[in-house]
């Protein structure tokens, strides 16, 4: 007997507004499952032995597919907590509209998942980081800055900046680690807004079993939309002697949970970030 259900609110991409002017279309998500097992009281969803979750958005498809498991209670609890975490961050616009209560709820569920899965050891499993990841949530955005707890444009109505999708692209062979952000900057009427994609190219190294150190190499900006004919250009980096130690281009974070479709990281300032793996179309 097969069961199929729709969970359209899961991993919804709400309007990513930092101003009151733009509203991108919501994400359409679907959830399909095989034979019915006990339900999660939190989400009202079945927990099949193998679950396929396909998340559609305007930028492609997010693949969320469980590894083959033996159906143990521990495995089922981890999968249930993953779905609970996705549900908890849904509607928070990656943390930009989160309240203090929202931050605490996400933190609680993330800790439950980290505890249930156990410590991460990437010394023999670094390839788990390989691929392109989409940011679903960052507690740093609660600071109302695009830079989180670091430097960045402030959010608010005086600066018509809209944050689009944010990705991390990791290549464990070349040790490349790119942070990619889509940004729309408002212009005076009647000029159209300026759409840009900023790529912060880093190199990374593994420190210990789960800490990742990244060092900025360059920042490349590519315009799109009406200005797509402009070639990409690099933003010059200030010499280290002119750069504050707190913004020297080197950062670190710990991977506290990772599997083939979800990753949780914690930054040096305590930021909690949740990513899902992206399948390029």
Automatic annotation (TrEMBL):
Its main location: plastid. Residues 80-275 form the Plastid lipid-associated protein/fibrillin conserved domain. GO terms for cellular component: chloroplast. Keywords: Plastid, Transit peptide. It is found in: Plastid, Chloroplast. Pfam families: PAP_fibrillin. PANTHER family: PLASTID-LIPID-ASSOCIATED PROTEIN 4, CHLOROPLASTIC-RELATED. Belongs to the PAP/fibrillin family. This is Plastid lipid-associated protein/fibrillin conserved domain-containing protein. It comes from Arabis nemorensis.
